[in-house]
Design brief:
- The structure is a single chain.
- By secondary structure, this protein is mostly helical.
- The radius of gyration is 24 Å and the shape is globular.
- The N terminus and C terminus are likely disordered.
Length: about 450
């Protein structure tokens, strides 16, 4: 399949007139800036407040664009599964990232996205990944040793932001980047900051102007380096992408490599910093999980300065689960998509809610201490074909982790609460366990020990 046959069509979406969305409840905030400052100050809190006030579908205005926010499991299925191709990631992200990170993988649609994803996969196979891990492990160990030598406390987010930036530069671009490293990293910092700047035009003296200048520097550096890396090779990510090909054997174009490298560097630096900060904050709030993860690492029997291997990572399932749970509770990046044509959102969501209520049933569970648990009076809110209990017997103290393993998550409690349905399992019990949505009950009955 050639790139010409799957390139995104050159269509131009015309934004709706402001008053055409007035029937959707919401608040677009102040003139010009809208609610941009509120969302930048507290993204999660702003969404929760707007959802509580206006409902699960509300209208807002952020970064110069009027948007409609959809909340809840049915809305997520409607937008993210998108089997009818109603929504475009390209146009959803274009106004936010298009000027600075154009045509990154997240900004591509449909067949073109899948084709580029397959082409990039060569850089994420086992051999290259082991090389990246070695470089990352060395960089992290050295930085942690420096942190230990510093007197007093350190601010985690700034320290992690600098670490991820340095690691992205050396692991992605190679240790031989030389004296350009500071200029390149500074350019990326300016680009990331400009992406969420309230001022969307590159007027002199603005953050957007610095971001556009940084983009020009990045383009010049990559354009100069691509023929060199193709000739010399290397184990770093940049060198791998310079040799990546499409299914027809054609090399990725110079512009494609520039765009993908820019986006990957941004993701490795910005979103990873946010994810790790949320993870550490969650561990600080849950000392028992600190102990569990510490015991898991100790059980590996590694010396203090021993390098990390892929086998070590696979032997730490709790660390992976805890990190994913931190991202679930505080996602580092929202979803932004633009409708390609007029749609009836509420009708589509209602149809999915009705289909879920017909197709999802709750499995009977037998507690060895309290006997059979009555069939729950509500259905699970999870989009899955597997059956799962939504609530437990009032007298049963089944461990939250075991309940989670059967498919009930913190999402269920909160969404039932939003619908006015009381859930008999408290949210606090759910928060103690890492939930794996995919592990709903796969048999019609279960034997569970009570805690």
């Amino acid at each position: 399949m050639s790139m010409q046959s799957v390139a995104s069509p050159a269509i131009k979406l015309t934004p709706p007139k402001r008053n055409s969305l007035a029937h959707i409840p919401g608040d677009e905030g102040w003139p010009v800036v809208g609610r941009t400052l509120a969302i930048l100050a507290d993204p999660k809190g702003e969404v929760e407040r707007m959802g509580a006030k206006y409902g699960l579908v509300y209208r807002s205005r952020v970064l110069g664009e009027t948007s409609v926010t959809l909340l809840g499991p049915e809305a997520n299925e409607f937008v993210l599964f998108d089997q009818s191709r109603l929504f475009s990631s390209t146009y959803g992200w274009e106004t936010i990232l298009g000027r600075l990170f154009p045509r990154g993988l997240m900004l591509l649609d449909f067949d073109e996205h899948r084709l580029h994803r397959r082409a990039l996969s060569v850089a994420f196979k086992s051999g290259p990944m082991r090389s990246y891990l070695s470089a990352l492990d060395a960089g992290i160990s050295g930085r942690v040793a420096r942190w230990r030598q510093q007197p007093g406390a350190i601010l985690f987010y700034p320290a992690m932001k600098q670490l991820t930036l340095d690691l992205a530069a050396t692991s992605f671009l190679g240790s031989g980047i030389g004296p350009d490293v500071e200029e390149i990293t500074r350019a990326f910092v300016d680009m990331v900051a400009a992406a969420v700047s309230p001022v969307r035009q590159p007027w002199p003296g603005t953050q957007m102007a610095r971001g556009v200048k940084g983009r020009a520097r990045i383009v010049a550096y990559f354009s100069e380096q691509i023929p060199i890396r193709r000739a010399k090779g290397g184990d770093d990510l940049f060198s791998q992408l310079c040799r990546a090909t499409h299914e027809d054997g054609a090399l990725l174009s110079t512009q494609d490599i520039i765009d993908h490298m820019s986006f990957l560097m941004m993701a490795a630096h910005d979103t990873l910093t946010s994810s790790l900060t949320s993870f550490i904050a969650a561990l600080a709030a849950n000392p028992k999980w600190q102990d569990r993860l510490r015991d898991e690492v100790t059980a590996l029997g590694l010396a203090r300065d021993a390098p990390t291997t892929f086998d070590n990572l696979e032997a730490m399932p709790l660390a992976e689960m805890a990190f994913k749970e931190a991202m679930r509770m505080k996602p580092p990046v929202p979803s932004s998509r633009a409708a390609r044509r007029a749609i009836s959102v509420l009708a589509a969501i209602r149809s999915r809610r009705a289909r879920w209520s017909r197709s999802i049933r709750c499995s009977p569970i037998t507690c060895r201490k309290f006997g059979p648990i009555p069939k729950p009076s509500i259905h699970c809110a999870l989009p899955t074909r597997h059956s799962a209990p939504a609530i437990a017997s009032p007298g049963c103290r089944m461990a939250a982790a075991r309940i989670c393993a059967l498919g009930c998550t913190l999402h269920t409690c909160r969404r039932n609460a939003l619908r006015g349905i009381s859930c008999r399992i408290s949210a606090s019990r759910f928060s103690q366990a890492p939930c794996r949505i995919g592990r709903c009950g796969r048999s019609r009955s279960r034997k569970m020990d009570c805690a």
